Amino acid sequence: MRFTDVLLSTLFLSIAVPLAGAAEIKVINAKALFPEGPVMSNGKLLYVEYAGNTADSWDGKTNTQFWKQDGCGPSAIVPLGSDFGITCYDSGQLVVIAANGETIKSYDTDALGNKLQGPNDGAPDGKGGAYFTLSGPWEPGPIVGRIVHLEPDGKLTEVANDLHYANGIVMGPEGRLYVNESEAGRVISFKIEADGSLSDRRLFVRLYQMGQPPNAYPDGIKLGPNGNFFVGQYSTAEILEITPDGKLKGSYKVPSTASPNLTFSDDGKTMYVMAVDNTKGAPYEGKVYAVPLE
User: Fold this and answer.
1) Domains, the chain, ranges and CATH?
2) At residue 11, does pLDDT exceed 90?
């Protein structure tokens, strides 16, 4: 996610869209304003609308707004024990909310007083905390992307830096932490130490080496129910499925311009895709799709 204008989402529809070479794709929100950063929680799909400054839920029938903060520019909602963290890309905040949408706490600096520039995505650490990416500026700004770790006790510390627009982030099947460097068109990984710090930074894949164009822009990344990585892209509406050893297994496409992020249903049969149709300017109209997995 990487835009900065604000409007409120208003219309929710449910229709089916046929796509050549794919099973029927269902639209569960036909007018989402830059949907992003989804997660499943207690049987509901939770996601944010960046250009609407909202967090929404979908219970299988109805989309409902349950949180809003003007100027936030939310890009992800991330489990934090029984609570959630929302990354406010525009306002430079990490906001902790309760399940009912009540704001509990807000961070705009880390433990050393460094500002949070471009909070973007997050991944639970399995211990009640989470790792969050701070993208930093777009080109031609300096390469200052970071990863911070929010510990269960509330301490927010830097665990990695010098990342080229840090974006999607996820725990891998072997316990390493995987991170998209969007402006570099690649995915890297780190070893997670016992104290939560990161080490052993390694390249995982470069998207152009998997048949994607030179300007391929990896956005979100999730671990699928089959143990493979699924990488959403802002450069195209194609979601790549990559095996843990870095091989391209296949891809899924939705009838939109971009597919920045995704998550999976509890039964592992459906992929929920956050898509953008209008990438040119606010309010960045898009859709939320339910895509059957092969």
Assistant:
1) 39-254 (2.120.10.30)
2) no
